[in-house]
Structures are given as structure tokens and as C-alpha cells.
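Posting this for the archive.
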Amino acid sequence: MDPSRRLRPLLLAPLLATAVAVPAFAVELVVDIERVGAQTGRLTVFLYDSAEAWDHQRDALRMQRAYPDGSDRLQVRFDGLKAGRYGVMVLHDKDGNRRFDVGPLGIPRDDYGFSNNPTVFSRPGFDRIAFELPVQGGRVTVRMK
């Protein structure tokens, strides 16, 4: 047998492993943000991959900022994800003071929204905002409150 034929599988193995691994982390999530009210400040979109991250036991998986552009809709993309369970929270710092403002009774002055758009009177649990991101990628809509 030709020695180069015996080495071919060893040479191709790293290429095949790379080809198989890339799709596992090439999933895209599009977050459509609706009902953007104030056209000031900035919106911060947080992506969580577990209840532990949601409960502040570790950081959010990713974060992106978006700025009002005159419309009531914005879009943010998260690339390079793997299929799995995620949750999204959007906070709109309308006055740009880099804080989420609440009144004396804890009622938010800034706008907010979550994936699955739950009706809330307090911060929902991760299970209420969680969704499955398939290997084909996906899209979620967050309606600001």
C-alpha cells in the first residue's frame, strides 16, 4: 500500500473536525425590538444562557447596545451561538445616565422588555423568558413596556 494513502485519513481528520465543529457554533439569533418609545438614550440587549446567569450568579452570555434611530423598531443580532436555551432582556436607558431608573415604589421609569413578552409585576424567572434556539438559528420579538 502506498504510504501517502495511509496518512491521508490522518491529514483529513483535522479538516473534518473543523467542518463539523463550525456549524455547532454558527447559529444566529435575531432580536426584533418593538415599541421603542423615546428616541433618546440607548437600549442594552442582554442574552442569557442559563438560570444561573439570569440570577446574577455569573454574567450574561452576551450584551449588545442599540440606539434609537427614529423608528419604533430596532434589530440586534447575536452571531456564533450554539443551539440551546436562551433568554433575552432589553433595558432602555432613556436619559442616558447609564442606570435603569425606578421610582420610589420600584416602578420602572425606563422601558424594558423580555423574550416571550410575559406580563410582569416583578422580574420574571428564567423559565418565563427562556426559548429554544434551533440549529438553523432563530428570531425573537421583544415588545418594550
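The chain has a mean pLDDT of 89. The longest strand covers residues 84-93.
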